[in-house]
């Protein structure tokens, strides 16, 4: 029977090089270790025994006998980490015990008590028995560097302070994102945390309290209150800063308080704060003092104290003049009707140094200097150049506005005022603005309806520089367009485009001329070019929309209208225009929604109520339409279309007594139209009030004696009531019919005589048309000219032809047969005028 293989065979076999038991007998290794810096260290002190080094522990492991149950331990003596001499003595003893040869260190003298200790200490652990009889590292009595130290009070205070600063930063970021609510909440939380920090420092007796942090947090909270419109809370926070002296710059705090009080319309307190701030500012800070004095003068203007404001502005002008101060001083003198001082302020305004234009830079630069040209190209549109342009535009605006005030306030003779201003400007450094004032003088002529002088003034610029020539030609084109002289309007529009082809106003004028001539394709081209140059040109955009409506390009119209609403989101007229376009495309629901948006802005516009009522009425919903029509009548009782719809509605619903009110109102609006008077009488008759109907018919017959319908109604009512006036009205009806026959014969004769001269045939249809036209002209002469209410609906309302639907009652059957017939007999068609059988007696009256 063979032996079973040993499962654990080979586990105790290892490479002899890995045997550590014989390392302590290796003298060469020991000598090599002693030659290192670690081996040359002195013997450790008593404390070093607690922290044995790696080699000393390894030596203890080497010196430990096999299968020893007592582990190597570190005592408080020097055995934990021995010096070189001590290790040598100990090794000698061990070598003697085991019979090993002596190493080199055995022959070295013992110097452990004389050599200094090494600078490197042990880790602070010692070996001890652990669980299951193994050996583990046991913590020594030294401190543990991995243990978390307890925070001190100062560190806690610094952490709270950092959190407060973080809250302020978050508040600022939230305000930059237009989140005012979050910004205010963060600011208030920062104030609460700062108060908690102050209490904590007092409790822990921490004397290093940061006053600047408290002032910083309070000032930020006050600013957030101001931004959110909470003026009372902001004033309270500023008072806390002043009372506790948290910020040394008290003058700036009072300036902020003055601005808040000025915004709250507490002008007296604001003036007091500004003056206190002025007293607290030092003389070295002259700029801030001037700003405060400007605020004081502005407060006087708001309070209506123009004299005190003028005195303050005068003192500022004497020290350091600027455009805003000089212009405000001129306004004060203008309000006080002090014309001499107004002109003096204008001359002070012209004394301010003017910023050179970009052309001056180009002239001063040498074109051959490449380096200078590169520098000029680099600074052509930098931030400083943009600031210069902005300041230059502001100066031009101030001077031209001041010249307008002086020119229009020269005892009714504005020409003299403009001439004086132009002379003063030409004598100053603002000579470039003289031509612009000439154009303003021409515009002043337009306000006086003096078109001849305005055109003559503008024509002087035809040979001027391109910019002025373009502006003058643009105004001339507009003037001729208003006078409906389209040829000259076209001429000067072309001249303006020749001078400056990128002038959007000239392109718009050119498009207007084409639109007036119904050349919609060219008008569309010029409007689109104007929009390509200036995308915010509202005039070009609106006219382009009207042109596209004429061309029935409704999809493009909708796109441009959406752009229009972005430019002017609160313009209700744009909403009406959009609704009209949608109505033409049969999108009734969307049109109604746009009208409702416009109605939400202008709730008292009767036109909008009527338009919505028309849309609802088109959907056969008269009950809802009635409400909108009634609101339209309430807001605009003179709208004839509203009155007509309401009257017809109540007549259809058999409420003639309610229709009387609207018919009477329509008769007052259009007193020259007999239709409304007849409808009033008809409503009386339908309601059973025959007496009122008879009186109304008599009144109509008195004012319109030639109306046969009124006479027939009088005959009918007289017959029904059994009155004796029936025969009288029948005779009047015969006379009126006879008179109309005579008039018709005379018109026919006149037409024959005219056609005899022309020598052509006249058909019966032509006779009827010409007679009807003349009858209409006579009736129009007899009627009063009605008020054109269609022009009151606004520029954007769709101009439609007014179609009236007269209400004529149906006569009973027995009256139809009794109506008189005309005496004119119909001639044969295409009769020749030079017929020998013509009866000349027909030309004479009966």
From TrEMBL:
Q: Which PROSITE patterns match?
A: TPR
* UniProt GO MF annotations: kinesin binding
Keyword Transmembrane helix appears in the UniProt entry: no
The biased composition feature labelled Polar residues covers 73-97
Tell me which Pfam families the record gives. TPR_19
Enumerate the residue ranges of region (Disordered): 35-102, 744-782
InterPro entries noted in UniProt: TPR-like_helical_dom_sf (IPR011990), TPR_rpt (IPR019734)
Q: Which UniProt keywords apply?
A: TPR repeat
Q: Could you tell me the Gene Ontology terms of the biological process aspect for this record?
A: intraciliary transport; non-motile cilium assembly
Q: Where are the TPR repeats?
A: 504-537
Say which domain of life the source belongs to: Eukaryota
Q: Which GO terms describe its cellular component?
A: centriole; ciliary basal body; ciliary base; non-motile cilium
Name of the protein in question: Intraflagellar transport protein 88-like protein
Query: Which species is this UniProt entry from?
Result: Adineta steineri
